[in-house]
Structures are given as C-alpha cells and as structure tokens.
Design a protein that fits this description.
Elements: H1 3-13, H2 17-20, H3 30-38, E1 47-52, H4 57-70, E2 75-78, E3 90-92, E4 95-96, H5 99-116, H6 120-134, E5 139-143, E6 160-163, H7 171-174, H8 178-185, E7 195-197, H9 202-214, E8 219-221, H10 222-225, E9 226-233, E10 238-244, E11 247-255, H11 262-278, H12 285-293, H13 295-299, E12 306-310, E13 313-316, H14 322-334, E14 340-344, H15 352-356, E15 364-367, H16 378-386, E16 392-394, H17 398-408, E17 414-418, H18 421-425
Parallel strand pairs: 1-5, 1-6, 2-5, 6-7, 7-8, 13-17, 14-15, 14-17, 15-16
Antiparallel strand pairs: 2-3, 3-4, 9-10, 10-11, 12-13
Helix pairs in contact: 1-5, 3-6, 4-11, 4-12, 8-9
C-alpha cells in the first residue's frame, strides 16, 4: 500500500463529516476511548492547549502554534478540515506529517479500522496523538472539530482551554440557540484548568461561569485584560499594538492575517499566552511578536482573507456561517472597489437562506459548487438566491466560475470567493 492508496482507504472506509455530513457524526466518545486504549493513551505523553468555538479557532490555533515554535518548544498542531492535503491536519513545528508515516499508520492499523469502523475524524485524531507522542512534542495545539463535549479531541487534559466565540452553526448537532451551543463547547473545560473566553457574550456568560465553577476553575475573558489596537491596514497585514490592562504590551505587530476579525482572535491569543506564562511557560515578548508575524510561514495557514491577486483585487475567505459572513461583508464594504463579483458556493446543511439574505444585492454572482457530496448544487443555490434579489449565473466548477469573474471584472473591481471552506480549497 502506497500513500495514495492509504488515503483512499481512509476516505472510502470511514465516514467523513466534511464530505458526507451527519452520517459521520458520532454522539459519543466510545470509539475515541477504544482507540486511545489501543494506542496506549498517547495523549498523556504531551502537554496541550485545547481550542473550541464557532469561528476563529483555526486562526487562534495556528497563531499559538507559531508562537510556541518560535519560543523553542517542539510544537504539534492538530486542526481540521484540510484545504489541499490531508497532512495539513497534523504538523510538528509547521511540517506536515510525512506520507510515509501516514501510510505506515494505515497499514499497521488496518485491522482495527475495519473492525470498529471509526469516523474519519476519530481515526485522524488517534493518528495525530500517536504521532505527537512518538515524536516527543512538548506542546500540542489541538483544535476541536465540532462542538466540544463529544469531540474526539476531548480526551486531553490541557494546560489551558480556549473558547473563541459562540455563533449559530451545526445546530442539528449542538442545539438551536446560543446557550445550548455554548454548553456543548463548554464541555472542553476541565477540572482546575484555566479557560480563556475570546468573546464576552450575554447569552453565554452564565453557561461558562457555571461550568467553570463546577470544574473548580475560573473564566478569563480576553477583553477584560487585553485590547488590540489597529494602527493601519495593508493588503497583506494589519499593523497592531496590544495593550494589557491599559499598559502597552506589544507594539507594531504586523499581523499577516489581514481579516479585521483577526483582531478578536489576536486578543484571544494574547490572553492564552498570558495564562500559559502564569503557568510557568517561557514565552518572551520577542517570541510572541515573532510568532504572530510568522504565523503563515510557520504553519501554512491558508484561506483567511487571503489575497490571491491584486488586479483585480481577488480575495478568498473560509467564513461560512452568519457570524463569519457578517465579518467578511463588513470588510468588503471597507475595501475600495468599483464593482463586486461574488464567486459563491455552500454546503447543503447550512442555513443557506439566512446567509443569502445577508449578501449585497448590487453584486454580480457566480454560483458554483465544490467537488464534495455535501455541496449544494449551483442551480439550487441560484434558485434560492433569486428569492433574495441576488442575480447571476451557474457554473459547474469553482474554477469556471472564477475564470468568468476574472473575465468580467475590471482592474478596480473586487472578486470575492467563499461561502464554504471547500470552495476556497479549490482556489488557494
């Protein structure tokens, strides 16, 4: 079995939420605990930070990993989903797990995979944790997949738990209101482990405080301690200062993630770093600044308000729920352009009408779909969009839609590509 065959085996054998949706969701941790025993509890062999939330957890995870890497820690990073290459999910000091390691893992554990039929995510978490243990990582930054309480990553006892924010997403699994979703995310809070909350929200405060009290720990609200000040905006970075309790903490940071929503994520990162320093981790100001500024080069993060071209300005972003789209639309409105071209596709289990209702009516739309089973057919997307006053044509591939937008756009126009992580995956 070579690498291509190993990956195909995993894709064919195991249900994958990103591709198939609800069929891949497991509402218990039985397989996760079984696999953990099978691999002799690898998660107990490394320290970790655990990150949940509706939006921003990927960016926060990558920034934290870059900081720890710059501070000299051997740093594991587990995130999902991947955009181009399965191996993006599992990194050490920025380097993806090797094809050889993935292949060996599948060959060696083919029997147990066939025997218990874990989900794709359950098996990927097991692979990551075993790899981190074998490679003796000193700090693992672990992003949840969905939710928290029943997430396969939730067997770890981290040095710090982080919850970025709570929005309406994955309601069919997590609940139909903000407090219910918050309760699921709060499931990552562990006994005596500090928890950083990235956004103070009226509907979630009581949930987080109650859970923290039950777990004999305290909530640390990032905005109570830190403020991130935007000094200037460039095409590929935001120039920022960070203050701690109104005193200057770090100055002139060139944040290479140019989405305005990253200011909130950076504040969450600052609060997490502060908590870790209070727990004895050595993270100098130089390490922190350098780590933040090198996030993309150190970790390979893609698809967050990423500039693909400058003439016409072409931007993609993986934001795909109401909160994420709202932030994107705000930045589009602040970005100088003559006319807006929107290359849009969505998956079929999102609140499609809710998102379409938010989109600007004075843009040209290029409706498309990603090459995964969950993608909403472009014709259906167009039909729904027309009801919300959005006009455009259908294209059977993302690349065809983008090519048409490029053909129609003038140099001073703006082309935006998004609506789904999987749409962005086909252009970065």
């Amino acid at each position: 079995m070579n690498y291509s065959e190993a990956i195909q085996f995993l894709f064919d054998q195991l249900p994958m939420f990103q591709r198939s949706g609800a069929v891949a969701y497991k509402n218990n941790l039985d397989n996760t605990h079984y696999l953990d025993r099978w691999f002799n509890h690898p998660h107990k062999q490394f320290k970790s930070i655990h990150i949940a939330g509706t939006n921003g957890k990927g960016s926060v995870s990558h920034m934290l990993a870059s900081v720890f890497q710059e501070a000299g820690y051997k740093t594991g990073l587990y995130t999902s989903p991947h955009l181009k290459d399965f191996r993006e999910r599992i990194r050490i000091n920025g380097d993806m797990i090797s094809e050889e390691m993935v292949t060996k893992f599948v060959i060696k554990n083919k029997q147990i995979i066939e025997e218990i039929s874990p989900s794709f995510f359950e098996m990927t978490v097991a692979m990551a944790f075993q790899y981190f243990a074998l490679e003796n990582v000193e700090m693992a930054i672990v992003e949840t997949g969905m939710g928290g309480r029943l997430d396969s990553t939730n067997i770890i006892t981290p040095q710090c738990s982080v919850i970025t924010n709570i929005g309406m997403d994955h309601m069919q699994f997590l609940g139909n209101d903000i407090p219910s979703i918050a309760k699921e995310k709060a499931g990552i809070i562990k006994e005596g482990v500090p928890v950083v909350i990235g956004r103070k929200q009226t509907e979630t405060t009581a949930v987080f405080c109650k859970t923290a009290e039950e777990k004999n720990t305290k909530t640390i609200y990032a905005e109570d301690l830190f403020e991130v000040i935007l000094k200037s905006k460039e095409t590929n970075y935001l120039l920022t200062d960070i203050t701690f309790q109104d005193q200057k903490w770090l100055s002139d940071i060139k944040l290479p993630l140019a989405g305005h929503y990253q200011l909130e994520n950076l504040r969450t990162v600052a609060a997490t770093i502060h908590s870790m320093k209070m727990n004895g981790f050595h993270l100098s100001s130089e390490d922190v600044k350098r780590g933040i500024e090198k996030t993309i080069t150190n970790t390979g993060l893609m698809g967050r308000w990423q500039t693909l071209n400058t003439s016409p300005l072409t931007i993609c972003d993986t934001g795909h729920n109401a909160d994420g789209i709202s932030q994107i639309l705000h930045q589009i409105a602040e970005t100088p352009h003559n006319h807006l071209h929107m290359v849009i596709g969505m998956v079929n289990d999102k609140d499609v009408d809710g998102i379409l209702r938010m989109l600007p009516k004075n843009a040209s739309y290029y409706f498309t779909r990603a090459e995964i089973p969950r993608s909403l057919p472009s014709e259906q997307l167009k039909e729904k969009a027309i009801k919300h006053g959005l006009l455009g044509n259908c294209y059977d591939s993302v690349q065809k839609a983008l090519n048409e937008a490029k053909k129609n756009a003038s140099d001073n126009d703006l082309i935006f590509i998004g609506g789904s992580t999987f749409i962005v995956a086909e252009v970065v």
